[in-house]
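Students often ask why inverse folding is considered easier than folding. One informal answer: many sequences map to the same fold, so there is more than one right answer. In these notes we will look at a single instance of the problem. The structure comes first.
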């Protein structure tokens, strides 16, 4: 049993010294006003009633001096509470027993600065007999008060606390409050000697505790509120054990949060220690809150500070918090957490919130759950702890990696498309849905067995993937490698799982070769891939209809959005999936390096019957200039008779990209082929659904791409030279530049522009 004291009882036994390496007193600072008022209001409510309040643990150690002196007690944690209590005692000090009470009040001292030490001593020695003159203004009027004290952070904070006490305590309440405070043991705290036989801790803890920031953070208040809440669960249960000693949830939490668990958050980084602890426990509280069916689908903002405290009063939540922290303590005892997560990273790496590929660095779920609120991280952390507790693991086993990869894939599938990029749609208030996956996936240590025995919990396509792996176990590493690929995002819809093992391997290797980042990232090779895709029948990824439904938008890949093209679910985009499979099959059957194989696919198409019809696909395969913009995003006229002509190359993925300036895609290709500058010609940049033309600058002629061909608009009074009229088959009544058997429309327009240069 830990000794239980009032402040007077502690000062009767010890001289309490806040040592030099401790932080300044912070509870009285201006930015801590809310916390200070809440703490003092709670104390004064107890003193004004009949109950009692235990202020939890004060950690420290004592040091005996000569027999003629009180031993010194050095508090390592609890300094803020002790100082506030001491100031309250000083403020309520009755005039009639001033001399008697001074003796023990003088045994409290700050050694953080010499000015703090002197101030505490003088404050007691020169306490006014008239207790009504203990306000801050009276203190500053004293002859012993030096102006230099204003620069001492501890002294300034003490005066701030005295101002708050003055605001909260009515003069007529002083006598009764003093009686409750000093003679009825209304306020107590437990003292733990960290160097005693029971705990035998070292001075290293002092450094870590003192490292918990020079500023008062919200965590200290939260820790106290949470400990008080845990006491309501019941002291008699003593469900926990520490070094063979049975402890309640409250005692176990209060002790370990300042001892073993502290090491999880310390790791040599002093700054932000409290914030990391606070952030992590708040996130576990959030998980517990949204696992409750009563809170499912509530707005995320519905989760409040007091929810993060009171949620641990619910069944299983306090054990969950304690077991998660104990789990990571056990893991860290085996190996550094970063090394543990380095092994797991391929199985849990996720796309970033903006849809970009995740960086290749270690994904440390523990650290990220301290200072980030990404819902997917919290879900993965919950799943990780649930599985490891269930199977008593402390290492990243292959089974754990398989389990997390399957869950990661399912979470990756929770997405929405915005600006032609998939973004995570994992939401913490949908946690019950994800828990409906976590439990069955963890029902067996081998996740494939768990899925096979899960009935209809998971889709037929996931069962098909499991059957494929069980049929070809030698392909399991390859399947895992593909699932981990950031462009596939756990979705293998572009692959045909009805293929035999050899053909699957050929197509998988084709994918890996084409979409090796060193190859697909440069713009010129990205164009080559798109052209080969279109040659294989790829129609693009359809976006939103724009401009009142008169235009359909289509995206063809590249520009940091390849994942949108490739991470197709097994039941999505059947035409697109078929084309990608066709590309992979043709590529796998080819020879030469990656460029040569893709070029052969393009060349083969351009010799095909479909290409001879010279539809839009022919032009989009033949001319890489279609993909020279910043988006590879196009708006097609959705009227069949004009669709191939009125194709606009868009500059953005906004909700209505036609609002911005753009030009006809065929116009831009001709412009680029002629030279791309403004010397000879330039596109007519338009907004909305207006048709754009190519302006030939020297002649002031405009040519417009239409379903019949290029319509030529001559300036008033201008007559084309006769040789040009004959060369391009034109007449005054027929100024439409048409393709010929030997020259397509792009070639004809380029030749016409150059003839007038």
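Output (designed amino acids):
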């Amino acid at each position: 049993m830990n000794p239980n004291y009032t402040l007077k009882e502690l000062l009767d036994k010890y001289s309490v010294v806040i040592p030099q390496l401790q932080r300044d007193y912070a509870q009285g600072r201006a930015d801590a006003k809310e916390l200070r008022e809440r703490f003092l209001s709670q104390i004064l409510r107890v003193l004004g009633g009949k109950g009692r309040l235990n202020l939890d643990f004060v950690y420290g150690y004592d040091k005996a001096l000569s027999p003629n002196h009180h031993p010194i007690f050095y508090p390592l944690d609890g300094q803020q509470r002790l100082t506030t209590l001491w100031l309250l005692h000083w403020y309520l000090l009755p005039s009639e027993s001033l001399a008697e009470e001074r003796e023990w009040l003088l045994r409290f001292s700050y050694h953080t600065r010499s000015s703090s030490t002197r101030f505490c001593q003088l404050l007691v020695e020169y306490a006014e007999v008239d207790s009504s003159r203990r306000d801050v203004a009276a203190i500053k009027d004293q002859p012993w008060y030096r102006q230099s004290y204003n620069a001492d952070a501890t002294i300034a904070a003490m005066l701030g606390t005295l101002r708050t006490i003055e605001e909260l305590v009515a003069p007529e309440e002083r006598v009764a409050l003093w009686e409750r405070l000093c003679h009825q043991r209304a306020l107590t705290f437990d003292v733990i000697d960290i160097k005693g036989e029971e705990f035998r801790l070292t001075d290293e803890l002092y450094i870590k505790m003192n490292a918990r920031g020079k500023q008062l953070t919200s965590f200290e208040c939260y820790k106290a509120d949470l400990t008080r809440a845990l006491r309501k669960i019941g002291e008699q249960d003593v469900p926990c054990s520490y070094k063979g000693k049975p402890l309640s949830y409250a005692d176990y939490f209060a002790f370990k949060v300042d001892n073993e668990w502290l090491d999880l958050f310390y790791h040599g980084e002093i700054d932000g220690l409290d914030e990391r602890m606070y952030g992590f426990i708040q996130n576990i509280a959030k998980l517990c809150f949204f696992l409750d069916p009563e809170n499912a689908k509530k707005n995320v903002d519905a989760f409040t500070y007091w929810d993060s405290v009171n949620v641990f009063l619910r069944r299983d939540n306090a054990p969950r918090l304690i077991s998660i922290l104990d789990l990571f303590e056990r893991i860290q005892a085996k190996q550094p957490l970063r090394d543990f997560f380095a092994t797991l990273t391929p199985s849990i790496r996720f796309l970033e919130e903006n849809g970009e590929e995740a960086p290749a660095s270690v994904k440390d779920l523990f650290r990220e759950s301290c200072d980030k609120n990404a819902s997917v991280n919290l879900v993965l952390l919950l799943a990780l702890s649930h599985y490891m507790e269930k199977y008593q693991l402390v290492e990243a086993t292959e089974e754990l990696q398989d389990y997390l990869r399957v869950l990661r894939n399912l979470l990756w599938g929770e997405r929405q498309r915005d600006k032609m990029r998939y973004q995570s749609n994992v939401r913490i208030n949908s946690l019950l849905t994800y828990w409906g996956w976590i439990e069955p996936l963890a029902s067996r240590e081998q996740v494939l067995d768990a899925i096979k025995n899960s009935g209809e919990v998971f889709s037929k396509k996931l069962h098909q993937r499991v059957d494929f792996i069980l049929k070809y176990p030698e392909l399991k590493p390859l399947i895992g490698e593909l699932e981990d690929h950031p462009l596939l995002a756990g979705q293998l819809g572009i692959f045909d799982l009805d293929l035999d093992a050899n053909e699957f391997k050929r197509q998988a290797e084709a994918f890996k070769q084409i979409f090796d980042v060193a190859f697909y990232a440069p713009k010129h090779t990205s164009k080559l891939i798109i052209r080969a895709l279109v040659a294989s029948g790829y129609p693009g990824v359809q976006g939103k209809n724009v401009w009142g439904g008169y235009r359909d938008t289509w995206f063809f890949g590249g520009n940091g959005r390849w994942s949108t093209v490739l991470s197709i679910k097994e039941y999505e985009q059947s035409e697109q999936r078929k084309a990608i499979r066709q590309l992979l099959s043709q590529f796998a059957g080819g020879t030469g390096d990656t460029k040569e194989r893709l070029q052969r696919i393009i060349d083969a198409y351009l010799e095909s019957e479909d290409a001879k019809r010279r539809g839009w696909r022919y032009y989009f395969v033949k001319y890489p200039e279609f993909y020279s913009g910043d988006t590879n995003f196009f708006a097609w006229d959705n009227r069949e008779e004009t669709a191939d002509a009125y194709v606009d190359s868009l500059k953005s993925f906004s909700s209505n990209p036609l609002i911005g300036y753009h030009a006809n895609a065929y116009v831009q290709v001709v412009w680029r082929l002629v030279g791309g500058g403004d010397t000879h010609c330039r596109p007519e940049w338009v907004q909305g659904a207006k048709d754009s033309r190519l302006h030939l600058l020297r002649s002031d002629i405009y040519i417009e791409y239409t379903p019949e061909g290029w319509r030529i608009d001559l300036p008033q009074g201008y007559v084309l030279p006769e040789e040009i009229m004959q060369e391009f088959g034109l007449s005054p009544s027929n100024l439409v530049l048409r393709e010929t058997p030997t020259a397509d429309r792009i070639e004809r327009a380029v030749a016409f522009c150059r003839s007038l240069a």
